[in-house]
Amino acid sequence: MGRQPCCDKLGVKKGPWTAEEDKKLINFILTNGQCCWRAVPKLAGLRRCGKSCRLRWTNYLRPDLKRGLLTEAEEQLVIDLHARLGNRWSKIAARLPGRTDNEIKNHWNTHIKKKLLRMGIDPVTHEPLHKEDQLGCSKETNSSSSSHDHKNNLPDHQSTNDHSMVANSAGSEDMNSSSSPPENSSSGDESTLLDSICNDESLMKNLWVDETPLIDALWSNNGQVVADHGGNEINIENGMGLQTWEDNCAWLLDCQDFGVHDFGMDYCFNDVELNGLSTLEMGDKLSTTIN
DNA sequence: AACGTACGCAACCGCGGTAGG
DNA sequence: ACCTACCGCGGTTGCGTACGT
């Protein structure tokens, strides 16, 4: 009954990926596209489980990924989206082209959280910390704390100079929920929050109509869109003027350290390098190559 | 220079929803 | 209808490295 197990846990390698493994996985995906992750390890000659392969590809190897720190604009967008969506990292990531949920989650936990705390803003509720203190209902601000508790022990009273309310300035004042995120709210009034959010037509439209126009609108200005193997759209350049393919190509050049030309990526990217990394040309090139 | 601590990030774990058999 | 694997997601862990003493 049921399906075959995805992998026989025995003999499955764990831990950091080697360049050789990356090479195999990239080669396989570029050749065959993303299909059945269960079959990928076997077909690609990897001693990994499909889950691990998917993770490695989506979080690290995908050519449409941006590398490096989030820009100010991206960070602001993350804060705004987190105020609306809570810890729905995949939803947030869907609105930041070239960023993964894991990357955003990590950046949130290591940078943005602290930044907000320093500004006197509760990263969970996106409300001023002192407000909660006054109400005597101060929640554990680290309620969603990671295992690295020592990382989150910034003093709550720190720096109240900037009370510009990042989240609110990013447009959450049109939420009659007082910008409490729907997730991770330990106050127990989640249903009320949800109701208020659901009653906000414009917000709901923004949030749930496909992959909302929040970013799409930004992209649509200059955005070049091509299709990936699965027919999904990849944005070559977004409207925020953020780097994309130039950086990716730089990164991909680094791949040559382990022989990118050996496993077939050159057919995909070399022309672009030679053509001065024109993003428009890259879009054309990719769309034809991939299709 | 050596050591201890803090930090950042890649990867793993476990759960819930979905779908194949 | 039920069982079980697959998939995707959010939470957590652990390693490598930067930084401070």
TrEMBL record:
UniProt keyword Amino-acid biosynthesis, yes or no: no
Segments of skewed composition (Polar residues): 155-170
Entry's Gene Ontology cellular component terms: nucleus
InterPro entries: Homeodomain-like_sf, Myb_dom, Myb_TF_plants, SANT/Myb
One term of GO molecular function: transcription cis-regulatory region binding
Top-level lineage group: Eukaryota
Keyword terms, alphabetized: DNA-binding, Nucleus, Repeat, Transcription, Transcription regulation
Major place of residence: nucleus
Residues passing through the membrane, by range: none
Subcellular location: Nucleus
Gene Ontology biological process terms in this record: carboxylic acid biosynthetic process; regulation of DNA-templated transcription
CDD domains named among the record's database cross-references: SANT
Location of region: Disordered: 127-193
Ranges where the HTH myb-type domain occurs: 9-61, 62-116
Residue ranges constituting the Myb-like domain according to the UniProt record: 9-61, 62-112
Alphabetical list of Gene3D superfamilies matching this protein: Homeodomain-like
Bias-annotated ranges (Low complexity): 171-191
Protein name as catalogued: Uncharacterized protein
Lineage: Eukaryota, Viridiplantae, Streptophyta, Embryophyta, Tracheophyta
